[in-house]
Amino acid sequence: MAEASELDCSEVLRVIALAREEDLGQHGDVTSSLLPAHRLSAEGRWRLTARDEGRFCGRELLPILLRELAPEVRLLRVGPDDPQGRVSRGEAIAELAGHVGQMLAAERTILNFLQHLSGIATLTARYVAAVAGTGAKIYDTRKTTPGLRTLEKYAVRCGGGHNHRIGLFDAVLIKDNHLAGIPRERLAHAVFEMLNRLASLPIRSSFVEVECDHLDQFEELLKVVGIDVILLDNFEIEALRQAVELRDRHGLRGKIELEASGRTQLENVRRIAETGVERIAVGALTHSAPILDLGLDAA
User: Fold this and answer.
1) Which residues contact 63 (CB under 8 A, 6 or more apart)?
2) Active site includes 175?
């Protein structure tokens, strides 16, 4: 599970502020304002409950959400007790108490965050379980919701997955569009020339990865020194096995990792992992995860 310190950052606070602004606008919660003043300022109690089985992603986030959205609401207890965040249908995850008006205004925004992120963590955990024992790791991609990348990648970690590069700024990934029009016999030389310019970057790239679409391109990339990962895009299962064998035959196991990407689903991810690739990129973790149904109801 990711730690709380990973969430205490300006990006998270900015997106919470944006969520508050888009829901409350300039006039606040106009419906709740129709309640008597004494009811709005009264002390209320609420229970956060899992309505389905999954992974809860919010033990570290919920206190931050309350601090920013409902500062007079206290978190009496937050779970789950399971260290991996697993929750069962009907399980009470958290109990809250405090200012009724603030909670009425914050309820939906809190649930939007927790349900979405818990859905990502739940789907990630299913992929991780599907490849258990193979040695392959599940990675996310940049296919995230604009503005929510920091939180969505945090949710992937909560589900036991791993983060790929955060954005275009922190790692080099030379894709097919970067190499468009370069003939196969020139591919190794073209990539070598690009890598010679690494020293000119304003940062030190956390890794260097190059994408290929065919085995003949892959063989050319094995000639290039300085590549950490080769991305095998939309390779069939047999082609993935052949790529692993070629890499190993060249004595590059442990020096170059292989990452499978494209058309990955829960139904076929174990077959992909059993080819021997070290990494499997799954865009669906962040772009297609259904929410984990949670309820936040008056207790």
Assistant:
1) 75, 78
2) yes
How many CB atoms sit inside 10 A of residue 78's CB?
Answer: 18
- Tell me whether strands 92-99 and 43-50 are parallel, antiparallel or unpaired: antiparallel
- The C-alpha angle 185, 244, 274, rounded to 5 degrees, equals 145
Residues 163 and 171: their CA atoms lie apart, in Å, by 12
Exactly one of 211, 257, 259, 278 is catalytic; name it.
211
- Residue 216 phi/psi, 5-degree rounding, is -65, -35
- The residue from 67, 77, 175, 184 that is catalytic is 175
Ordered domains of the chain (ranges, CATH): 4-128+290-298 (3.90.1170.20), 130-287 (3.20.20.70)
The single residue of 77, 108, 249, 263 carrying the catalytic annotation is 108
Judged by DSSP in three states, 87 sits in strand
> DSSP state, 200?
G
> How far is C-alpha 28 from the geometric centre of its chain's CA atoms?
32
Q: Please tell me which residue in 29, 107, 140, 233 is annotated as part of the active site.
A: 233
- Whether 84 and 55 have beta carbons less than 8 Å apart is answered as yes
Q: Is 223 a catalytic residue?
A: no
Element containing residue 281 per DSSP (H, E): strand 279-281
Q: Which of 74, 143, 253, 270 is catalytic?
A: 143
Active site residue 143: yes
**Tens digits of pLDDT across the chain (299 residues):** 565 457 667 889 999 999 999 999 999 999 999 999 999 999 999 999 999 999 999 999 999 999 999 999 999 999 998 889 999 999 999 999 999 999 999 999 999 999 999 999 999 999 999 999 999 999 999 999 999 999 999 999 999 999 999 999 999 999 999 999 999 999 999 999 999 999 999 999 999 999 999 999 999 999 999 999 999 999 999 999 999 999 999 999 999 999 999 999 999 999 999 999 999 999 999 999 999 999 999 99
- 233 as an active site residue: the answer is yes
